[in-house]
Design brief:
Radius of gyration: 13 Å
Largest sheet: none
Structural class: mainly alpha
Shape: elongated
Strand content: under 5%
Distance between the termini: 13 Å
């Protein structure tokens, strides 16, 4: 069940990366900062969750 959570976190991280690219185009610094923090946080937790689930198999 936690692998599904990891995949959902990964999808959110990928959407945050898309947002980073869009905000670079608009030159919106505050949104770029929040998108970057979101991508880092959700990316870390998604990778950690997936590795944790795969290592427990």
């Amino acid at each position: 069940m936690n692998i599904v959570l990891g995949i959902l976190f990964l999808l959110v991280a990928l959407l945050a990366v898309v947002s980073i690219v869009r905000q670079l185009k608009y030159k919106n610094i505050l949104a770029l900062l929040f998108s970057g923090l979101t991508a880092i946080a959700f990316g870390f937790f998604s990778i950690a969750t997936i590795i944790s689930e795969l290592s427990s198999l």
